Structures are given as C-alpha cells and as structure tokens.
Amino acid sequence: MQQRRLGDSGLVVSSLALGTMTFGAETDEEGAHAQLDRFVEAGGTLIDTADVYSQGASESIVGRWLQQRGRTDDVVIATKGRFPMGDGPLHQGAGRRYLRRAVEASLRRLGVDAIDLYQLHGWDPAAPLEETFSTLDDLVRAGTVRHVGVSNYTGWQLQKALRRAEQHGWTAPISLQPQYNLLAREIEWELLPQCLEEGVGVLPWGPLGGGWLTGKYRRDQRPTGATRLGEDPDRGVEAYDRRNTERTWDVLDAVETIADERDCSMAQVALAWVHQRPGVTSVILGARTTDQLEDNLGVADLVLGDEELDLLSVRSCPGVPDYPYGMIADHCGVDVWDRLRTRIAER
Fold this sequence. Notes:
Elements: E1 3-5, E2 12-14, E3 16-19, H1 29-41, E4 46-48, H2 57-69, E5 76-81, H3 96-110, E6 115-120, H4 129-142, E7 145-151, H5 155-168, E8 175-177, H6 191-198, E9 201-202, H7 228-231, H8 240-243, H9 246-262, H10 266-275, E10 283-285, H11 290-297, H12 306-316, H13 322-331, H14 336-339
Parallel strand pairs: 3-4, 3-10, 4-5, 5-6, 6-7, 7-8, 8-9
Antiparallel strand pairs: 1-2
Helix pairs in contact: 1-11, 2-3, 4-5, 9-10, 9-12
C-alpha cells in the first residue's frame, strides 16, 4: 500500500484509510477487530473514526483493539467532533467548552495520550471561528492533538478557516474530509481546486456512493434485504430515488465494463478512480464485513490507465454552472475544471 504525505504536513499516512462508522452498529466488536487486524496486515496505517459514530462505541472499540495490540506507533488515529453527543446545546458544537470536553472524551475512549488528526466534523455557525481555531491550537500546543483537519466544509468556509489560522499563527487544517466519488464530484467546483492550491490533503468518504458503485442495485428494482438502501431506501445522499438517474446508470455501465476487462470487482474500479485523483491523499474504506474490506483492499494493486480514467471521468462528468465557473474558464484562463474533467461538452 502506498504511503503519502497528508497535504503539505509532515504526517505520512497510507493511501487507503479504514473508516469505522459501522463499528458498534452494523459491525460487532469481533468483526471490527478482524477488520482492523486485516487492514494493518495489508499495510494500512490511517484509522478514521468519530465520537458520534454509535455514540462513542466506535472509538471505544478502536481503543480496546489498540490496548490489545499494546502499541500505537505504527498507526495514525484520526477522529472527529462537533455533532451531538447528548441532548441540548452544551453537548455539541465547535465552541471552546465543548471542543475541550469532546477531545478529552475521545482520548479516554481511544485510550491514547494524543490524537494524531482531530477533525471538525462540520461547520458550526454558532461558534466564532477565532474561538474554534484558537482552542484547537491550544490543544496542539498542549500535546493532546497533533494535527487538525476539517470535514463537510464548503469552499468559503475552508478558505476562511485557513486565512484566520494564518492571520493569527494558529495551527491550520492540513486535511479536508468530503464526500467524493464517481456519482458525487461537486467538490471539484471549489473545494478540490482550493485544496490543490493550498496544499490541503483530501480524505474522501463515501467513495463507493453508499454501495451504488459496487453494482448491487438495479435500474428497475428498488433495493430490498440486508443492504443499506434495502433497509432504508430514503437514506441520505445515496437515497434510491435521488440516485436512480440516467447519469448513474451510464457511470455504472462504464465501471462494469472496466471491471469485466480487468477481471476485478466494480468496487475496486470505482475506488481506483478516487485513489488516483489529484489531491487525494487517502481514500476512506467503510465496510460491514471483513470480506467486503478484503475486496476493497484489492484496489491497492489496481492502477487504471489513462483511457480507463478518461472513460470514467467523462461518463461521470458533473459539468460546471455557466456562471461563474464557465465564464471564468472561458475568459480568464482558468483550466482547472478542464484538467479535472469536471466540464466536458459531450459524454
């Protein structure tokens, strides 16, 4: 497995990360520990969790695994905080009081002295940015957090955070964790170009589009059974009715074509596209079972050729709005959306 620097920082992580949102919910502790063992055996180092995953259970499961191993120097622990861990306004947010308590609670559950990468799980409009990032800087200076990142930010929010940190000499975010896959490429309008410009590492979540890109769903059949959409067809951004479009099926046809030619799974093809995208440091894998993880890990040995990458990029091209992006591209010499294949006249 490749090892890559996270943005412009000195932190080196594996190019595949193990996401743990299923731990304590869809995956029991024994299964979670089996996934962690297999991930590390395959050369993985970055383990991503969050306090809100199963209301602390995911962090605790990871913590007990770390304790059983008796060592943490060969893994990078990333976690997140901001969303509700209890009832009421004092149990959530990015203000000083809550962030300090959230970090302390995550440290206890994980059983570590310091969190390698602490990420704000989302923007908090109620907390002054100066309060949020001065608090994170204090935590870094105290040694309980080593690096800072953000997740689920817009372009202007990331820009504002970077400039405030720069202005005050505070620890700046080294990473962004956004949704990014062949069916969700909107970060290419603002966020990905900004991360490339600023040296911020990208850690995509949902690289398989909630299971869509594995080929498990069908055009004329609503999902049923023991799958995420089978249990809840209206689930979030990957809801069946939301994604059941001609563009989706065009993308899936291209993924299947390459998978058949390469004699590999559709999941591996979809992951390989994200794995090879500009600016992406590490792709977060989220699996229910060790078998699913095993298949996903196969992407470490899969390198798509230029023609294959282009086919996928053209089929999944989201396009850019005529204004301001189209005008800027046409008249201001900005070619980033052409380089990313975000806008293509014909598919």
